[in-house]
Automatic annotation (TrEMBL):
<dbReference type="GO" id="GO:0009448">
    <property type="term" value="P:gamma-aminobutyric acid metabolic process"/>
</dbReference>
<dbReference type="Pfam" id="PF00202">
    <property type="entry name" value="Aminotran_3"/>
</dbReference>
<dbReference type="InterPro" id="IPR015422">
    <property type="entry name" value="PyrdxlP-dep_Trfase_small"/>
</dbReference>
<keyword id="KW-0614">Plasmid</keyword>
<dbReference type="InterPro" id="IPR004632">
    <property type="entry name" value="4NH2But_aminotransferase_bac"/>
</dbReference>
<dbReference type="InterPro" id="IPR005814">
    <property type="entry name" value="Aminotrans_3"/>
</dbReference>
<dbReference type="GO" id="GO:0030170">
    <property type="term" value="F:pyridoxal phosphate binding"/>
</dbReference>
<dbReference type="InterPro" id="IPR015421">
    <property type="entry name" value="PyrdxlP-dep_Trfase_major"/>
</dbReference>
<comment type="similarity">
    <text>Belongs to the class-III pyridoxal-phosphate-dependent aminotransferase family.</text>
</comment>
<keyword id="KW-0663">Pyridoxal phosphate</keyword>
<protein>
    <submittedName>
        <fullName>Gamma-aminobutyrate:alpha-ketoglutarate aminotransferase</fullName>
    </submittedName>
</protein>
<dbReference type="InterPro" id="IPR015424">
    <property type="entry name" value="PyrdxlP-dep_Trfase"/>
</dbReference>
<keyword id="KW-0808">Transferase</keyword>
<keyword id="KW-0032">Aminotransferase</keyword>
<dbReference type="GO" id="GO:0034386">
    <property type="term" value="F:4-aminobutyrate:2-oxoglutarate transaminase activity"/>
</dbReference>
<dbReference type="InterPro" id="IPR049704">
    <property type="entry name" value="Aminotrans_3_PPA_site"/>
</dbReference>
<dbReference type="GO" id="GO:0042802">
    <property type="term" value="F:identical protein binding"/>
</dbReference>
Amino acid sequence: MTSLTDRKNAAISRGVGMTTQIYADRAENAEIWDKDGNRYIDFAAGIAVVNTGHRHPKVIAAVKAQLDRFTHTCHQVVPYENYVHLAERLNALAPGDFAKKTIFVTTGAEAVENAVKIARAATGRQAIIAFGGGFHGRTFMGMALTGKVVPYKVGFGAMPADVFHAPFPIELHGVSVEQSLAALKKLFVADVDPGRVAAIILEPVQGEGGFYPAPTVFMKALREICDEHGILLIADEVQTGFARTGKLFAMEHHNIAPDLLTMAKSLAGGFPLAAVTGRAEIMDAPGPGGLGGTYGGSPIGIAAAHAVLDVIEEEQLCDRANQLGNRLKQRLAAIREKTPEIVDIRGPGFMNAVEFNDAKTNLPSADFANKVRLNALAKGLILLTCGVHGNVVRFLAPITIQDEVFAEALDILEASILEARS
Ligand code: PMP
């Protein structure tokens, strides 16, 4: 009989990578069961999508109620009230003490595309500055903004013009905030007139690039540079949003408001929905019909997102993220005593990561990180790696994870790291 993996290889483009061979059958909160009844603890959460857990009862109830009313009318043709209401809620919740407006789209990449379109329309400028190691999606502009060539840009030809990259400050890799800011200033001297720059985009905590938080001094400096030159600041909170970092949005850690904020993933707890929220006058720059899309703000995603926002508040998931993150970081600190390969443990709230170097060469070791991942998988814990060197294991468990399941996962994690040493 042909295995599912063989069928998948025959039917699906290899361009869609797969990190496990588990075929999901059902999932609940932080657990997934496969077709053969094997049970896994899910520390990937569909890549940061189910912060509120798989099939949160409130999210499912909201979606079921919506399914019984209508599933699609296209908001641009026959609008619906809960789309307007969700925009009102996000406008109130997003950082920034000013009038805001929102648009809904379907994916994180689309949110980034639209933020760039809006920034260009509002400023009448072209250029966009992003950072090395940043990730902003697989569409053409998202890909151009992404600061990693393999696998994201290889073979896809010319990127959209007028995209520039500066190095992201990561002390651990020898790039200080001062060096990063100096490189940005050099960009203005050598490559692009700041008067032509529409926006600077960054993730408050780099996600795919390795879970590196942007220091507050850096964020403040960027805000000042933007204000000095009339450049818009775009915070890409697609991965950091919705309580993951211990705040609803990671920008709240810095007390700095971006002009535009992109969100997706955990916004709708497992249903496709993304958004751009920003200063009202900037959001209004594109003309009617310039923004939108057939499925943008699907009634199903919108219904789910209302429930997600309720759950985050009712279950105090920001506090819970901080508690879980502290427990995880404490456990990793204890494992570090016996593991010279661990060179860093980091991350705000429950957006945590552990970074590995080779114990002999002290160079980043993707091999060690991958061993940890595979050991954990064999023991029933799904982990993800990340980082420009691939040497980081990141943790994205649902913030609703039950204490006993979390404790079990920490034991598996410890065993998997220690086993990778032998
Ligand atoms: N921006 C960031 C910061 C992301 O982490 C991602 C997805 N990993 C994206 C954009 C793209 O989102 P999507 O895959 O939904 O297009």
